[in-house]
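In this section we walk through a basic example: taking a raw amino acid sequence and producing a predicted 3D structure, encoded as discrete structure tokens. The instruction is simple. Fold the sequence below.
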Amino acid sequence: VELTAATSRRYDGVPVAEVYPSLSGLTSLAYSNAAPREIAKLCDVVFLALPHGVSMNIAPVFIQAGKKVIDLSADYRLRDLATYEKWYAKHISADLFGQAVYGLPELYRKDIEKSRLIANPGCYPTSIILGLAPALKNKLLDVSTIIADSASGVSGAGRDPAVASLFCEVDGGFKAYKVGKHRHTPEIEQELNALAGETFAVSFTPHLLPVKRGILSTIYATLKKDIKLDDLHALYVSAYAGEKFVR
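The resulting token sequence is shown next.
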């Protein structure tokens, strides 16, 4: 894989490693504010790390140019247009909406390989979906009892300055936020419903941890039938055997 371009309006002309020192020695690229059509001439695959509501303006340009697009925003994660517009904004590329493959390789690897538009999963949904997938596929859970308490590091809030993310605001604290109204909720329910083959709601509460990065999701549910702990563990080991991102 060869990295051919990195774009940014804010950091146009600034070396990537200057903005992200952890990448020092890994790339000599500088950010460019080149138009999408110009960037399309330089690459085969494009990662869009744009705010929700912005990717939908850019993705069609690369798709029309025959490129594979991996979108990190939520613009193509949901399959129902009305649900997206309820939680996010009006979608302007309806022709592409619903065509994207949900980019969780442990569940959709073959579809990802064939698709030109990949919707990268959200952070909380990734931890919750992978945590429940084997149990749901095997009909082990009473789905009406699922509760997910998730905690994220401060970097999950993005790079823009905000009082709530200041060191003095988060140090030594642990708090819930956006209770009952976090935008990852419909994404979590969409994928868990698909795995279980039935429609249900999930009690999801996000929390902010005073650490740089990472997510810990603690998930609770009632079993529909008895199963030994060793057998449950073996089920999960088997489900994720060979998966490099699951330990």
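Looking at the output, two observations stand out. Strands lie at 45-48, 68-71, 101-102, 117-119, 141-152, 175-176, 203-208, 215-223. Residues 193 and 200 are 7 Å apart (CA to CA). In the next section we compare this with other chains.
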